[in-house]
Design a protein that fits this description.
Elements lengths: L2 H28 L9 H18 L2 H19 L11 H49 L4 H16 L1 E7 L8 E3 L5 E2 L7 H4 L6 E7 L2 E10 L8 H19 L2 H7 L1
Parallel strand pairs: 2-4
Antiparallel strand pairs: 1-5, 2-3, 4-5
Helix pairs in contact: 1-2, 1-3, 2-3, 2-4, 3-4, 4-5, 4-7, 5-7
C-alpha cells in the first residue's frame, strides 16, 4: 500500500466516522413528520438502514458509532418525553435497546461482508494474473517477454517502486522473498508484519525444478506496507512461471549465459 492509497483509506474512514455521528441524527430529524403516523418500531427499522449504510462505507468502529448514535437520537426525538434522553414507556425502552443491539450486529455483518467481498476481488485479480502469464507462455511467446510480463505483474501485486530481472545466481547478501512468502535478511530474523519491508532491495529467485534461472530484484515503494501473504505467494508463483519459460528456452538461456 503506497502513501497515497493509505491517505485515501484514512479519508474514507474519517468520513465514515463523521457519517456515523451525523447520519443517524439527520435521519431521526427527517423522520419527525412521521412520528405521529408511524410506530416507533418502524422508525427504528428505518434508522437501522442508516447504520447499515455507514457500516458498508466505513469500518467496525464507524458502524458501532452509528448504532449508538441511532439509538440515542431515536430516544431523543421519537420516544416520550420528546427532546429528552429519558424514556417512560416500557415498549419504547425495549425498542431502543433492540435498535442498539440490531444496529451493532448489522454493522459488524456489513463490515464483514465488505471485507469478504474485497478479499474475493483480490483473489480473482491474483488468479487472472497467473492465468495471463500462463496463457502468454503457452502461446509460444519468447521467454524474455514472459520475464518482462512477470516483472510488470510483480510491480502491481507487491506495490513496488521498481523491479528488474537479473540473470545468474545471487551473491547471497541481499534480502530475499522466500517460497513461503516470508522475507529473510542475512544475519537477521526478519519479522515482515512488524518491521515492514527491508530498506534495501529484495530478491525473488526464479527457480523451477530446483534450477535457478535468475532473480527479480525488487525495490519496495517508500513507506509501503507489505502486501498480505496471499499476494506474496502469488508473486512467488509468478517468478516460477518466468523460470519455467526460461527453462523451456534452451537456446535463449545459452545465449544469456
Amino acid at each position: 500500500m503506497t502513501f497515497s492509497s493509505f491517505s485515501t483509506f484514512s479519508v474514507r474512514d474519517t468520513f465514515a466516522v463523521v457519517a456515523g455521528l451525523v447520519g443517524p441524527f439527520l435521519a431521526a430529524l427527517l423522520l419527525l413528520p412521521l412520528r405521529a403516523s408511524v410506530t416507533p418500531t418502524n422508525l427504528a427499522l428505518l434508522l437501522v438502514v442508516v447504520v447499515v449504510a455507514v457500516s458498508a462505507l466505513g469500518n467496525r468502529f464507524a458502524g458501532a458509532l452509528a448504532a449508538l448514535s441511532a439509538a440515542a437520537w431515536f430516544d431523543f426525538f421519537h420516544t416520550a418525553p420528546y427532546q429528552s434522553f429519558h424514556i417512560q414507556d416500557r415498549a419504547d425502552i425495549e425498542t431502543a435497546v433492540l435498535l442498539l443491539a440490531v444496529g451493532l450486529l448489522v454493522s459488524q455483518l456489513a463490515v464483514r461482508g465488505r471485507t469478504l467481498g474485497g478479499a474475493a476481488l483480490a483473489d480473482a485479480s491474483h488468479l487472472e494474473r497467473l492465468h495471463g502469464v500462463t496463457r502468454l507462455a503457452r502461446l509460444g511467446t519468447s521467454a524474455d517477454e514472459v520475464v518482462q510480463r512477470v516483472r510488470r505483474e510483480l510491480v502491481d501485486v507487491l506495490d513496488l517502486e521498481g523491479c528488474r530481472f537479473a540473470y545468474g545466481e545471487s551473491a547471497g547478501e541481499a534480502a530475499r522473498l522466500e517460497p513461503d512468502g516470508s522475507v529473510t535478511v542475512p544475519g537477521w530474523i526478519w519479522d515482515l508484519e512488524r518491521q515492514g519491508w527491508p530498506s534495501e532491495e529484495i530478491e525473488l529467485p526464479a527457480v523451477v525444478r530446483g534450477r535457478s534461472r535468475g532473480r527479480y530484484v525488487m525495490t519496495p515503494a517508500s513507506g509501503a506496507v507489505p502486501p498480505p501473504l496471499e499476494a506474496r505467494l502469488v508473486a512467488v508463483d509468478l517468478a516460477v512461471q518466468a523460470a519455467a519459460a526460461l527453462d523451456d528456452d534452451p537456446v535463449g538461456t545459452a545465449r544469456r549465459r
